[in-house]
Amino acid sequence: MATLLLQQAINALTVGAIYALIALGYTMVYGVLRLINFAHSEMFTAGAFVAVFAASLLGGVAGHPGVALAAGFATFLAIGFLGVAVETVAYRPLRGTSRLAPMLSALGMAVVIQNVVMLVGGRRPLIYPSFLPRGVFQIAGAVVTYKQITILAVALVLMVGLELLVSRTSLGVKIRAVAESAETASLVGINPNLPIALIFFVGPGLGAVAGILYASYYGVATFSMGFIIGMKAFTAAILGGIGSIPGAVLGGLLLGFIETFATAWMPALTHGLIGTEYRDIFAFSVLVIILLFRPAGLLGEHVSEETMVYKRDF
Questions:
Q1: Is 64 a member of any domain?
Q2: How confident is the model at residue 269 (pLDDT cuts 50, 70, 90)?
Q3: Overall pTM > 0.85
Q4: Labelling 283: which of 26, 132, 174, 255 has CA 20 to 30 A away?
Q5: What contacts 142, CB < 8 A, 6 or more positions away?
């Protein structure tokens, strides 16, 4: 029993780390613009496909450490610039209007990106070349793969790096200032467009890396995989407290544990009535429960006086 619990905990951490990376993109954009960037899930998908193309240009051996790192970095940059382009074209002209217009624009961009990925990458599932090292070892009887260790290490480095960027750098100060009040930040000489462009660069870049990790872990990528995974990551952001970076990480990990353990134990508890094919139900059940009983999430949301007025007017 202890070995089984440890095994499921390792699996949950792996999946939760991927959810957390994607959730960070949602929470960063919402924290500054109060906008749900629905196109973020499709950038997750695009990242997986762009990485394969980048690896082919670099020699085609995705599992080679040098090729994997270079392809991952190139993908981060490419999808990051795509995020900035989307913000510039689809969101910036609508800034200051009602919140419905940017939301509809985000949905439109999600459809556009998904169809571009479908046209370029094809409709059929892509057997994904692993960018992660192969091999396994055991801890107290539980099997741990090098893929899982790499995913956890990459996610941890990126999460810590993001937290340091936001809390310890001048750019981070500008991001927090614009999140508090774009108008006040502009009065003290901060151009709001720069911090906003930065979050639209970093957020999609993290989502793209998550796309590579996810596709490498499961060995397959499809043009439509971003919808369900994106909704789960959005659920993680809501669960932890959307607008909070620690909340996104906490929510992603918790959702990974809920989904993994529910999927592992529910078939036995229900005598096969609820099987593993219902794993998505658990994630969206959590979303409904959180919205009903604690809409601010577990870590809550820092709400300034200006934000309260903004929400009341909306």
A1: yes
A2: low
A3: yes
A4: 132
A5: 3, 6, 7, 10
Q: Are 205 and 80 within 8 A, CB to CB?
A: yes
29, 20, 30: which is closest to 253 by C-alpha?
Answer: 20
Quote the number of domains for the chain.
1
Residue 243 domain-assigned (yes or no): no
Q: What is the dihedral of CA 72, 22, 100, 187, to 10 degrees?
A: -80
In a domain, 264, yes or no: no
Residue 188 has pLDDT above 90, yes or no: no
Q: What is the mean pLDDT of the chain?
A: 86
Any domain includes 261? no
CB 22 within 8 A of CB 230: yes
pLDDT reported for residue 216:
92
